[in-house]
Structures are given as structure tokens and as C-alpha cells.
Amino acid sequence: MAGPQGLFLTACRVITFERWGHELPYVRRFLACFAAMVAELLVENLMVWAVSETDARNQELVPGLLAQCVLICMFTEVVSATDARNQELVPGLQDNGEALLHSLAGSNGWLHFFIHGKWFDIKHFLGAILLLAFSNMWEQHPFSSFGMMARFSLTICVARLLRTACFMSTVLPSPTPGCYMRRFPPPPRSWFGIVWIGVTELRGFGGCNDLIFSGHASFWTVAPLMFCSYYPNRFSSPLLWLALLQTCIRDIIDRQHYTVDMILAVAVTTAAWGWTRRVYPEDAPLPSSEGEADERPTAAALLLVVVGLATAAVTVFVAKS
User: Fold this and answer.
1) What range defines the domain where residue 204 resides?
2) How far apart are CA 205 and CA 84, in angstroms?
3) Which residues form the Sphingomyelin synthase-like domain (predicted)?
4) pLDDT in tens, 204-226
5) Could you report the per-residue pLDDT of 9-25, keeping only the tens digit for each?
């Protein structure tokens, strides 16, 4: 019943929300940032497949570093049959961070519980972002929902655009050997086939190469950044930073990413959040609603609600990619 009740309460609040006039100026800014994020995700989806498909080491199970400019029209079909390492399931790169975490987990029961415990996941960070964005409907903060989501969208776009440029320029092996043969079809033999697969299939869980830094961690990092900027307090922000630390550690232990992937994800996303401050700075709250007449929802306002729901749906995909 919690789901239907929540939707009913939200619908009632939309009907009685008095500050639609304050939100409307930020809609165009949000739509532009949102469109940029969606476009980047579609391009990145194609590039993730292109890198996995054109890296011959993925199909031959060979570890190592492949420095090349990956063009979609290029495809290397075979690697030398005389290379004895072709069939070895050897991890790609040495991860000292993972080794240290395993050592710490084995040295103390509390550390083992912290490192291996599954306390937080995608839905918690997603819930925190959406709750903060739309909680101004309950006057919990003085900031625009569309303004905050505009900055969120552009931050994700900028950070992941940098990631795409990085993993397209230098191809690193996956922490999980043999990934490609388990997850992808045999590589097509034509340029059209590569592009077709890249644009018709969504890959919410990445490819079979290390992508320089974690898209998951980039998304997770935005949650504490949003709270620090728009809802600073002594409880929620530290809790979200702790959740980010523990979740990043668990991804390293599970060999979803290298340690450097998580460090760079947090650093790059934090930098991108600062770069996009002009989109909606934290010192630009909405005007006070005291003494103002009611502004009941118009057709345009209700359309904005639909846009908000679409935003939530795309945010779910971003969270899983």
C-alpha cells in the first residue's frame, strides 16, 4: 500500500502546490541540460559496445593494456595464434587497493563487516536524489526542483563525457577475465553491424573493458554533493558520504571496478559539480512564498509533472549504467 499511498499524496500535493510560478523560469534550463545528458548517454552506450567489440583481447581472453584510437569502422579479427596467453584467464591489472581491502577484512571482524556488508545500493542514492529534488513541494528547502535537476543532469553529462573520451582513447582490460564471451554476441564483420548493435541495445551495466572510472560511482557521488549544496546538515550529508565510501569499497571487492576507477569517479564528478555551479548556484533560492496568492496548477504545470516523472525514469537508467 505504500506505493499507491505515496502516489496519492504526491498527486494531492501537486494539486495544492502554490509555487509553480517560481519553478517555471528554470524549466527551459532543465530541459536543455536533460537533453544533453540523454544525448551523451546514447553516444556512450554506443561507444561502450564499440570498445568492447573492437578490443581483440576481449574475445581472446588476453590481459594487458591496449593503447589505440578506437574507431567504430575498425575491427581486429584475430590475434596471433602463437601467443600462449590467449586462453589464460589472468586478471588484467594489479589492484593494490583490492589486495589491501582483502587484508583488512581478514584482520578484524568489524572491518570485515564494513567492507563486505551490503548496506546501500543504487535505489538508496536514487531515492535520496529524487526526494531532495521534489521535497520543496513540502517546503523542506527553498530551492527549485528543476534547477537542482538541471545541475544534476549537466554534471552527469560532463563527467561521463570525460569518461567516454578517456576509455575511447586508451582501452584497459576488465577486472573480470572472460567477460566478453559471457555477455556479448560474436562480433559482427561489418561497420553497419557494429553500429546497429550499439544503438539498438542498452547496456546499463557497462561493457567488457575497464571504463577508466565508474559510472555507478559517478552517479552515487552526486547524491552527497546535492545534499551538501542544497540541504546541508549534520546527519544526511555525512551519512551519504559514508554510504558512498562503503559502496565503492564493495564494488572493488566484487571486482566490478579497479580501485582507481572509484577514486577518479568521485574526484571527476566533484569537479564537474563545481564546474556546473552556474546552472543553479546554491545561493539562489526561490523567493519566499509568504503573502503570495495561490498559483494552482495549469496545463503547463501538469505537463511539468510528466516531465519530472520522465526525469525519474531516465535517472533510474543512469543509476544502473
Assistant:
1) 39-74+89-320
2) 31
3) 207-276
4) 556 667 788 888 899 999 999 99
5) 666 666 666 667 777 78
